[in-house]
Amino acid sequence: MTTEQMSGHISFKLNGREQIVSVDTRTSLADELREQCGMASVRVGCAQGECGTCTILLDGMPIRACLLLAVQADGAHVQTAEALSSPDMLARIKRAFKKHKALQCGYCTPGFLVLVDYILRRALPLDEARHVLSSNLCRCTGYEPIVSAVADLLSSRGDELGELQ
Amino acid sequence: MYPAPFRYHRPMTLQDALLLLVRYAPNSAILAGGQSLIPLMNLRKVRPGTLIDIGRIPGLSRMSFSDGVFSVGAMVRHQSLCEGEVERLGLPICFLRVLKQIGSQIGNLAIRHRGTFGGSLALANPASQWTLLSVLLDANVVIASTRGTRRQRYADVLGPPAQTWLGPDEVVLGADMRLSNLNEVFGFAQVAPSAGRPAMAFSLVATQRDDDRILNCRIAIGACTPRPLRLYSLENELANSRRAWREDIALADIIRSEVGHLQMIEGTDCRYAREIAVAAITRALKQAMMQ
Amino acid sequence: MSFVGKPVERVEDEDLLSARTRFVGALSFDNMLHMHVVRSPHPHACLNAIGVDRAKSVSGVVAIFTGSDTRELAPIGFRRVVEPELSLYQQPVLALDRLRYVGEPVAIIIATDPRIAEDAAELVTLDVECLPPVSNAVAPGPDDGLGLHVQEAAGIDKSYGDIAAAFEAAAHRFSISCEIARQTAVPMETRGALAVPHGDASGFDFYGAAKVVHANRAELARILCLDPNRVVLREGHVGGGFGVRGELYPEDVLVAFAALRLQRAVRWIEDRREHFLATNHSRGQVVMLDAAVDHNGVILGLTADIVADQGAYLRTHEIKVADLSCAFLPGPYRIPAYRAQASVRLTNKTPCGTYRAPGRFEATFAMERMMDTISRVLKIDPIQVRRRNLIPASEMPFDRDLTAAGKKVRYDSGDYGLTLDKAVRAFDFEGMRKSAADRRAAGEHVGVGLAMFVEKSGVALRETASLCLSSDGSVELVTGASSLGQGLETVLSQIAADSVGLDMSDFKVVRGQTDRISQSGGTFGSRATIMAGSAVHAAGQLFRQAIIKRAAELFDAAPEAVHLQDGRLEIAGQPVDLSRLHMGNGDNAPALKIETTFDAENVSYPYGVHIAQVSVDPDTLQVRAERYCIAYDIGRAVNPDLVKGQLVGGAVQGIGGALFEEITYSNDGYPHTTGLSTYAIPKMADIPAFDVLVLEDWPSPTNPLGLKGAGEGGINAAGAAVAAAVEDAFSSQLTPYRLPMTAPYLFKLKTANERRRRQLDNLSD
Fold first, then answer.
1. Which chains does chain B touch, 3 or more C-beta pairs < 8 A?
2. Strand order in the sheet with C45-51
3. N or C: which terminus of chain C carries fewer CB neighbours within 10 A?
4. Predicted pLDDT at A165
5. Partners for C (CB, 8 Å, 3+ pairs)?
């Protein structure tokens, strides 16, 4: 793709739905998702990739949306915290976050929800999960209730699997 | 915090990329993983007029291990060196383990899904783990331009801190490193203010041993130095002494004396930087010898 | 069924988790313009001229304003009444003829797109003459040679008792000098403001408001010469505050000014680099203590000398932080004679303001380091030495004989010794110490430290709340207080539910909208639950009576036959939907609404104990927090989980302040810490295991529910507790007196120590 005019058309899937948009080359995927696509969960905390507030799933993998140009998302499948990888996953993770009060101001929460989705899909052990969660910054909760929520989700996933057997 | 305006190109072949690089020189830049470039652009510390995204060019993400040579393509993501295909290349187990150990300390998971091996080598940030690996293993970097493809020892490509001698029209295609002896054991240690933060000092060691004696070893230090360095005289000292591995004051003194000759990176507390360099080297050696 | 006291789930969470949110960065209006602030690149300079012509010609730029356009605007004032001379140090909203810190607003560019505005900013030229900056608040030594002197904006002097006599009688005298580096709050959402002018330029709606919306409305109206009723501040969702967000800043005035001038909505979103340059810094104190002590370690007298680095201007909190340090240094201790002097000094750095437990994080650090020094030198157990100095419960309420920010300090209730005992027992402090000692014997550097503190909460002693029955039977609860993420809507719903007799879910909370309620003190100083909660409680009781009366009238029943309990209304045994009461006996019936104002008797003073356990890597001197225990008497906990959330969140911020966080400038005034890579806030990998004990032994007599605040109880003593633990990890061979205790700092201490030891060895040879 060549954008001599500093803008271009891209098409990508957003939470399962096809999007065709015209984007300025300078627009980050984070800004595009929030301002043009109405995804209020995608926020910018630093525009340097350091805080993880903007974390979304790109083809199933957590990435920093502030460090991806919107034009680079052409042809990709993007999932945000509005949907995560499935409605069931979203419901379970929300329930755990509520139960453990794993959020206060909620600004950084979508980025964590995305990481937790990835952690559960990969069924990571808790210490690896903590390592992954250390990617993102939170200033309100002190992280402890987020760990509790994730530990709860990981152990109840084990229970579910146990029941299936 | 928005970048200055730029043109964006996403060529589908390497040749097109190289032509674009020349056509828009000197204000053109390669966009690989973007995890280092885009933050700099957002701060307007760099302002390329043209970005050439090489992410869709086939053939740049290959990895292979044959005849003792480990080849890594420029677009191989950091995370791909920690898990997945890399585990099926037949790499020596000890090397694979240290590769994962090093890789998993780069940035964080989200950065690792996008950041690239080639990008690390081209940017040569002193705290970049892959540059340390490339220096230790005497890697050759493969460089392409419209004038053709060439190879050069990566250690010779490194210039002043966070700079290389690569030309503005040159692109890193990947690097090859020879794993000289399949009985080599590896150790890596990093000192950072806390987990997940950029390293202040790191060390990578590859050694052949006979029981608990060091035979031949290769030792590299970095992050606290302007570029990663092989510590040749330390290597000779340890190999010649054929000493039995013991983590004692004598060893610490030898290492400290070697580190004392090094030029530390500007802006650090030199005395403290040397202490943690000693700690990193000691721990890396220990890990290798305890394998 | 009672809601107060239960750890119910938060009512805020469903919207936050579903991204049904209104953070200012997602708000947009038709025809909206974007503001970019051009900032001083110099720490100190004469500003001779600003060239904007090239910038103005960029396509998409609508207007550029400089100091000459805003010269007539009064500077942002102080939130409390202070000496008039202090107004000399207020900041013009755009620089006039001087630049005083890197980041100072110099011009604003209004454009159709924020990227264009930033492009144009680069074309603005500044004609300056650079001046030598003042970067060190502590007076330069005699051989400084630069001819600079540090400007003192104000001096503070507080005292009580006979200091001279105390030092006369002292068996021992201890002097320590403590330093707390400049630090800042770093909420995850940067600041933002959006002004939407009303059609006739007589007013505007302001989004991105937080913390103290009524105070800010009044101030904005004053500066812009508008009727305050035409200025409407609207709080949406707010991504954390911690004291630094929500004070009125130049950018807030500028956004409104531009919107009014251009008659279009104008939005400004701060970027993270700007945030580190332009949002209030804090801490930044040197505290020198001198204690006169008897044989038993009892402090007979204490003097404190504080130098506070205020930065380039006085902001809304003027010199209050240093004032609070002076007032709260004695903490939970008797200290029969005391004198504190503080010098608030101006430097060419970002201005400072309040940050969670302002002045108190610093004061507790210094005081507790003194207690530990006394303990160490006199060889008295650190618990003992504190016990001997604590104010006993029998002396409550305790008049400190000092003022804090102009108000007399009177500790309302508490038994500090009891809480200390409970903490020591509940966390098995002795067991922790023994275990650490065993690990040290085995070669590890592990230590345990304890610190005590008194906090203050519930300031600004008036608050209004209203309750109004809606047509669907729900009750609209209106408060002017703000939510910064702490769960305000939940606790107010809990209190309202109990006082009215309804279910929590019956309430819809409206907060932070200045046009919905006439008065509020806002959310700061841990006052919201106490003040808004007490106002809601009072309103709830009246509202309940009003419901019963209306129900009795409507259904022609005796008031005794009306039962309102657990969200169910029954009249003469028949269940009745609340919505039936909405319109009364016809369309002209008055709304069922109560608005009431609550006045608290006084400020309340929660208090507690922190215990930290750390291990230090002997080679790299990096400190890792292993365990952290907090015992905190909050008087009465409306929602124990939310109290715990405040304590743990604050403690992690405090650990950051104890170990990692430091804002630094070069000697020539240029900031080093302008991002999250250089200003290291704690990550999940840095947190210890937590134990929290929320106590309700001593409710506050200042309000009917007995409430005290939680907001700052987690951070207050963290610096002190972690420092004590680090000292213990080295068996007191290293004694840190500075925060943060970074590895290079500990390395310096260790090297100095070793050098001293070698000198002593040489001397003894």
1. A, C
2. C98-99, C45-51, C125-130
3. C
4. 40
5. A, B
Rounded-to-integer distance, Cα C482 and Cα C509, Å: 11
- CB contacts of A143 in chain C (<8 Å) are 652, 682-684, 687
> Does residue C18 sit at the A interface (CB-CB below 8 Å)?
yes
Which one, of C738, C713, C743, lies nearest residue C653 by Cα?
C713
Instruction: Find the residue in A nearest to C15 (Cα).
Output: A106
Helix (H, G, I), strand (E, B) or coil at C218: helix
Q: Which residues of A touch C690 (CB under 8 A)?
A: 142, 144
Distances C267 to B75, C252, C257, C558 between C-alpha atoms, Å: 39, 10, 12, 56
- The verdict on a CB contact (< 8 Å) between C619 and B272 is no
- CATH architecture assigned to B185-289: 2-Layer Sandwich (3.30)
Q: Do B53 and A72 touch (CB under 8 A)?
A: yes
Considering only the beta carbons, identify the residue of C14, C28, C240 that sits closest to A139.
C240
Q: Cα C625 vs. chain centroid, distance in angstroms?
A: 23
State pTM to two decimals: 0.96
CATH level 3 topology of B7-53: 3.30.43
Q: State residue B193's pLDDT score.
A: 86
Residues 6+ apart with CB under 8 A from B232: none
Please tell me the distance from the alpha carbon of residue C479 to that of residue C467, in angstroms, as a whole number.
Answer: 9
Task: Tell me which residues of chain B have a C-beta less than 8 Å from any C-beta of chain A.
Answer: 1-3, 5-10, 31, 34-35, 38-39, 42-43, 51, 53, 55, 79, 104, 107-111, 113-114, 195-196
Strand B213-222 and strand B201-210: the pairing is: antiparallel
Ordered structural domains, chain C, with CATH: 24-132+190-238+245-278 (3.90.1170.50), 282-458+603-756 (3.30.365.10), 459-599 (3.30.365.10)
DSSP state of C440: H
- What is the pLDDT at residue A160? 60
Answer positive or negative: Cα dihedral of C733, C737, C741, C743.
Answer: negative
- Homologous superfamily (CATH) of A87-164 is [2Fe-2S]-binding domain (1.10.150.120)
Mean pLDDT of chain C: 95
Q: Give the model confidence (pLDDT) of C634-682 as tens digits.
A: 999 999 999 999 999 999 999 999 999 999 999 889 999 999 999 999 9
- Work out the minimum CA distance from C277 to partner chain B, whole angstroms: 14
Contacts of B127 in chain C (CB under 8 A): none
CATH topology of domain B63-178: 3.30.465
| Chain A residues with beta carbon closer than 8 angstroms to that of C271 | 47
Residue B132: CA atoms inside 13 Å, Cβ hemisphere, count?
Answer: 31
Token readout for C22 is 């209104």
**The pair of three-digit structure tokens given for residue C240, joined into one six-digit string:** 């954390």
Note the pLDDT tens digit of each residue in C135-180.
Answer: 888 865 443 444 455 689 999 999 999 999 999 999 999 999 999 9
- Are C185 and C355 a contacting pair, CB within 8 Å? yes
pLDDT in tens, C63-102: 999 999 999 999 999 999 899 999 999 999 999 999 999 9
* CB nearest to C16's CB, from A103, A142, A144: A103
Q: Which of B42, B247, B276 to mutate to test the interface with C (most CBs of C within 10 A)?
A: B276
Q: Is the CB of A42 inside 8 Å of chain B's CB atoms?
A: no
Is residue C305 within 8 A of residue C341, CB to CB? The reply is: yes
